[in-house]
Design a protein that fits this description.
about 200 residues; alpha+beta; 60s Ribosomal Protein L30, Chain: A; 7 helices; 4 strands; about 50% helix; palmitate; OmpA-like; OMP_bac
């Protein structure tokens, strides 16, 4: 019995002594050469960016021109981008779903008519949103799937695909923050934003 215990202790010591870690020896010359090569490669890949500076007087002239253009557009009878954007309906979804509900189909059709008439000169950004249930990664993916489904519906009904962009905010852009079922249902949506 003693011999079994002694042999077990000796075996354990041999195994543990073989597992000791040693500090790695770093060859400083190779490290310097590699870092110099990396710096040269980065310098080759990064092209200089040309920037244009605008003086404050030019900036004020540009701002005045923009303001005049916007006011002339508003006075000529066309609605502003913000006013048109308010007419779009948000599309709501069931819990953990990304297909357009049957009760939302008429809202999608109304949004298509608005996109092809009054808002035809603007691009459309679809913003997918989720409630707070699920991980961040899952909700960002679900929000993107919801935006993609609405995009497919818009394109199927005649909106040009090159006018539509999508983004997912996951659960980070709630329209309601109460801890109720009704509130969570309001956060499962796709919103329309117009871009010039």
């Amino acid at each position: 019995m003693k011999s079994i215990v002694i042999s077990s202790v000796v075996t354990a010591l041999l195994i543990l002594s073989g597992c000791s870690s040693k500090d790695p020896v770093i060859d400083e010359t190779k490290t310097e050469v590699v870092s110099e090569v990396a710096k040269d490669k980065v310098a080759e890949e990064v092209a200089p960016v040309e920037t244009e500076t605008v003086s404050s007087s030019e900036s004020s002239v540009l701002n005045e021109k923009t303001t005049l253009d916007e006011s002339s557009n508003n006075s000529s009878g066309t609605d502003s981008m913000e006013n048109i954007e308010k007419n779009f309906s948000s599309i709501y979804f069931d819990f953990d779903k990304f297909n357009v509900r049957s009760d939302m189909q008429t809202k999608v059709s109304g949004d298509v008519q608005l996109a092809n008439s009054t808002a035809s000169k603007f691009s459309i950004k679809l913003e997918g949103n989720c409630d707070e249930w699920g991980s961040d990664e899952y909700n960002f993916a679900l929000g993107l799937k919801r935006a993609s489904t609405v995009k497919k519906s818009l394109v199927a009904e005649g909106v040009a695909v090159n006018r539509i962009t999508m983004v997912s905010y996951g659960e980070s852009n709630p329209s309601c923050t109460d801890k109720t079922r009704d509130c969570w249902a309001k956060n499962r949506r796709v919103d329309f934003k117009l871009l010039p």
